[in-house]
Model the fold of this input.
Amino acid sequence: MNKKHILVVGGGISGITTTVEIAEVGHNVTLVEKLPYLGGKVAQVNQYFPKLCPPYCGLEINFKRIKQNPRITLYTSSTVESISGSKGNFSVKIKKSPEYINDNCTACGDCSEVCPEERPNLFNYDLDKTKAVYMPHEMAFPWKYSIDDKYCKKESCNKCADVCKYDAVNLNAEEEQFEINVHSVVFATGWKPYDASKLETLGYDKYPNIITNVIMERTAAKNGPYSGEIKRPSDNKIPKTVAFVQCAGSRDENHLPYCSAVCCSASLKQALYINELYPETKIKIFYIDLRISGRNEDFLQKVQKRENIEMIKGKVAMINELSETNNLILEAEDIMSGRKVKEEVEMAVLATGIVPINPSISQLSIDEFGFLENIQEDGIYAAGCSKKPLDVSSSLKDATGMALKAIQ
Ligand SMILES: Cc1cc2nc3c(=O)[nH]c(=O)nc-3n(C[C@H](O)[C@H](O)[C@H](O)COP(=O)(O)OP(=O)(O)OC[C@H]3O[C@@H](n4cnc5c(N)ncnc54)[C@H](O)[C@@H]3O)c2cc1C
Done:
C-alpha cells in the first residue's frame, strides 16, 4: 500500500472519527486540536440524543483507538498557522502552546491543591472556577493537568512545580513551531454557539434567569457546576416553570438565516431530562416548526406524551423580567389559537444556533454563512459541523466519508 500522511485539524467527534478511520486502514495521521483535550462540544453535553447516554459512551472507545494506534500523532493545545504547497505535497506550520505539564503527569491533583490562583471554568461556560492548574474535566483525554497561561504566576509562585513528585511541571516551557508534510488536509473545526447577547428583545444580557441551550447542558451535567441539579441562576432555586425559546436567532435574516438542524432535538432532550429529574416542573416549548428527523422522531413522540410538557407553536418576540421575583414574562403569538400569549416562567432557555468556526487559513473556501467547503481538486476537505449544522450521527457519517476522500 502507498502509505499517506494526512492532517486532521480539530479533535471533536468529527475530527476524531476521520483520524481513526484513516489510521485504521494503515495511513499516518496528524491530529491537531487547539484545546488541551479532545471531544469538542460533545464532551460538554449532559446526555446525547437519541439514546440519552452520557457523551463518554461514544468518546471513550475512540480515545482508546487513538491511544493504541501508532500511526496517529496527536498535538493538543496546537493550531495550524499556515499551509503551503499543493495536493499530495502540503507543507504545514503547526504552533504548539507551551507544554507546562508533560506526559509524566499522573493526574494526582497535588499541583491543583497547592495552586493559589483561579480562572473561569471555560468547560462550564464560566459558571464556576478552577485553579490556574486544572484538569479540563473529569474524563479528559489526554488525562493530564493543564496550566492556564493567563492566570498562572509561573516561577514567581512555583508551588505546583515544587509539589510535583513526577517531574511533570516545567514552568519555563516555551511555545514550539514546526513543520510537517502531508498529502491532504481535513478541517473539522466545528462550531460555536450564536452570541445570545445580540438578540436584544430576548433579554439574555439583562436578566439572570435566561440561559442558552449550551449552558443548560453544563447546568444539568453531573460533572457540572451544580452536580446534576438544575438551578436557576438568580437564587439557585430549582425552577417550577421553564420555557424553551426555539429558533433564538436562527432562520432570521438579522441573525442566522439558516436552520441549525439540532436545536429542536436538543430542546426536546433537555425538556425530557428536566421532566425526569423534576416531574412537577411545568415546561413550555415555543417553536416555529419542529424540525426533527430520523430516529429523533421517536423522541418527539416520547416528549409529547409527557405530562407537564407543552408545545406551543409560536415565535417568542420579547422577554421581560418581573423585578420582584426575577421571573420572566414571554410574549409570543400562539399560531394555533391566533391569540397573543403572555407566559410567566421562572427560567427560560434560548435555543441558539450553530455558528461555524473559521480557522483562518487562506486556502479555505467558505460559503455565504461561513461554513467550510470541500475543495476536492486541491486536496482540502471539511468534515462535520465545520461544513454544516449536523447532529453527532450525521457528523460521524460525514467524517467517515471525508476520511475516504482524503486517502484517495
Ligand atoms: C445545545 C446543543 C446540544 C446538542 N446535543 C446533541 C445531542 O444530544 N446529540 C447529537 O447527536 N448532537 C447534539 N448536538 C450537536 C453536536 O454538538 C454536534 O453534532 C457535534 O459537536 C459536531 O462535532 P464536530 O466535531 O463537527 O464539532 P465540534 O464538537 O465543535 O468540535 C470541533 C473541534 O475543533 C477544535 N478546533 C476549532 N478550531 C480549531 C483550530 N483552528 N485548530 C485546531 N482545533 C480547532 C475545537 O476545539 C473542537 O474540539 C447538540 C448541539 C447543541 C447546540
